[in-house]
Amino acid sequence: MDDQQPQDKENEPVAPPKAIHPFSPDVLAPLFPSAMFGLLCRLGLEALATYDGQSIFVLAYPQAVGCLIMGFCRASITGYTPVLIALTTGFCGSVTTFSGWQLDIFESWLNPHNAPRGALRDVVDGITKSVFTVSISLASLLFGHYLASSFTLSVPHPPRVVRISIIVLSILIYAAAFPLYFRLSPSFRHQATSALLFSPPGALMRYALSVKLNIAGRIPWGTFIVNTFGTALLGIFHVVQRLNVNSDACTTLQGLSDGYCGCLTTISTFAVEITVLKGRKKWIYSVGSYVTAQLLLLVIIGPALLSGVRESNLCTFEH
Q1: Distance between CA atoms of 125 and 121, rounded to whole angstroms?
Q2: Is the per-residue pLDDT at 162 higher than 50?
C-alpha cells in the first residue's frame, strides 16, 4: 500500500467566510454604539464649526467627515461584515444627515433670521447649500477611497465568546445613555443626552429598510423612504418646537430631531448610491429625493407659517 503524502497546506481550498444573517444580534447590536458615537461626532463638529464669521455652512463638516470615512472603510475593510456595517451604516450614516441638510436648505429660501439680503440672495444661499453639499460629499467619498488604496484590513471572524462580549458591551453602552440623561445637568439634554436615546432606533430603522428594500442596480427605495420620511418628521418637530410647548417637550423634540431624524437619514449612503447607480436611475434617485424632501417641508412648514407660526419663536429648553 502506497504511503499517502501529506497535502500541501498552501494548496488547500480556503474556507468561505461564514454567512451572517443581516438581522442577527452580531450585526444589530454594534449599531447601537456606532450610531451614538456618530451622533456625538456630528454634534461636536457642528459645535466646533459654529462661530461668528464662519466661512462655510455648519453641516458641511459632518457631511464631509462622514463621507470621507465611508469611502475609506468601504475600500479597505474586508472579512467580518458586522464591523463594516457598524462603521459605515452605524457611524458614517449617523455622522451625516439628509434631513438636516434639507431643512437647512429650506430655511435658506425662507431667511428666517431676516438677514439683510434680497430674495435673489435667498435663492443663491439655498443653491449653494444644495450644490456644495453634494459636491463635498462625493469628493470626500472618493478621497476616502483614494486614501485606502494602499491599505487593506481583513477582519477575521471572531470566536463566539468575543461576539457575545461585543453584543453585551454594545447593549450596556446604550443602557448607559439613560442614567446619563437623568444624572447629568438638564442643560445637557437638548445638546446631546436626549439625542443619544433616540439615535440607535433611527439607525436601526434605516438599516432594516435598506436590507429589505434596497436591491443592487435598482433605485434604493429603502434609503429614499428613510430620507424623505425623516425629513418630513424633522419638519413636523421643527414646527411643533415653535408652538407653545413646555421645556420638557422642547428638549425631547430636539432629541428626536438630532438623534432619531439625524440618524434615520443619511448623506453618506446617499452619496455611495449616486456613484453606483447608472444612467437615468442616478438622476431620478438624486433629484427625486431632493425635490420630494423640499416639497414635504413646504407642505408641512408652509401652512404653519401662513397660520402665524414664527420661525423665531423657538421654545425654551430645560436648564
Answers
A1: 6
A2: yes
For residues 111 and 125, what is the distance between their CA atoms, to the nearest angstrom? Answer: 9
pLDDT (tens digit, 9 = 90+) per residue, 192-218?
999 999 999 999 999 999 999 999 889
Cβ atoms < 10 Å from Cβ of 178: 12
Pinpoint the alpha helices (H) of the chain.
25-28, 31-48, 60-76, 81-85, 93-95, 98-110, 119-147, 160-183, 194-213, 221-240, 247-255, 262-264, 268-276, 280-306
Q: What is the pLDDT of residues 140-149, one digit of tens each?
A: 999 999 999 8
> How many angstroms separate the CA atoms of 262 and 105, rounded?
15
- Cell digits for 198? 433616540
- Phi-psi domain of 100 (left: phi exceeds 0; alpha: psi -120 through 50; beta: other): alpha
Instruction: Yes or no: say if 112 and 311 are a contact pair by the CB < 8 Å rule.
Output: yes
In the predicted model, is pLDDT for residue 57 greater than 80?
yes
Q: What is the mean pLDDT of the chain?
A: 91
User: Cα–Cα distance between 23 and 46 in angstroms, integer?
Assistant: 32
